Amino acid sequence: MDYVATFLEIINENNEASVHFNFRLVHQDTGQSVFVSSLRNVFNEKTSFTCWGLPKFMKKSDLVTLGYLKDDCLEIECDLTVIKVGEIDVPPPDLVQNLGDLLESQVGVDVTFKVKEEAFQAHRILLATRLPVFMAELYGPLSDKRKRSIVVEDMAPRVFKALLHFVYKDRFPAMDDLDGSEYEEMGKHMLVAADRYGMERMKLMCESILCNRLSVETVAATLVLADQHHCSKLKDACIRFIDSSNRIDDVAASQGYENLKRACPVLTAELWEKSAKSRKL
User: Fold this and answer.
1) 73 and 111 inside one domain
2) Domain that holds residue 225
3) What is the SS3 string spanning 172-191?
4) Which of 84, 115, 136 is the last residue of a domain?
5) Per-residue confidence at 41, pLDDT binned at 50, 70, 90?
């Protein structure tokens, strides 16, 4: 071979490291070293190689002439710097925390919502970003850009406060003070609010809450709610709950059944038809 090759190889498997290395040649007579080449590379399991270097480092004839190769001996110094990838801890995303702090601090608020006897302040641009309804109301072609106060009808203050909490923090507020039935009722009100303002993720989370709390006493009322607010997953869950173990007679004796008959007569007829068929089987 006419050339001398030099390579570095990573020995430990499944390791990842960023490597910076300099090659220096040592003169056989003087012992002085000179810089020749500098390389940088990342070794990891995704790459198809475990070594990296120069297949044509220098010609043998040049090394002999310059006094670096003598009696088949060549001395190379390597200055090596290894930075293990992952040693720098990156904190988790804090955007949601920052937005929540913005809501709590009330810094820069520019719109007020009046809900019954209570008032809630917020940021127009953030609301418009998160809620399609507010995008149209606050920034649409027919909107009043100078409007600073909005009256919210047909909603309890606690529900609107929970809606705002979700808008800024992408999660529900703590509701530890509510008992089981109150928690379920709050879930229904939040579902209505989510549907009203186009918060699809919040709406699905409310559906999940109500789905996990279905009972013979509540399923009829929940089914009506699901039908009215186009909650297909919750509606299917209610129907499966009624169909399972043939609960239709027990559901018919519940308080919410009369409302189910009035609000969803076709659906009620289908439930009885399915029940009759299952009994024949």
Assistant:
1) no
2) 216-281
3) CCCCCCCCHHHHHHHHHHHH
4) 84
5) confident
At 185, list the tokens.
């009722």
Q: Is 190 in the same domain as 278? A: no
Q: For residue range 140-191, what is the model confidence (pLDDT) as tens digits?
A: 888 887 888 999 999 999 999 999 999 999 999 999 898 888 999 999 999 9
Q: Which two tokens stand for residue 198?
A: 């186009």
The C-alpha atoms of residue 59 and residue 64 are separated, in whole angstroms, by: 9
Is position 89 within any domain? no
Among residues 31, 60, 84, the one where a domain terminates is 84
Q: Any idea which residue has 């009829």 for tokens?
A: 220
Structure tokens at 223: 């089914």
Cβ-defined contacts of 40-48 (< 8 Å, 24+): 42/16, 42/17, 42/18, 42/85, 43/10, 43/15, 43/16, 43/17, 43/19, 44/15, 44/16, 44/17, 44/85, 45/13, 45/14, 45/16
pTM confidence score? 0.67
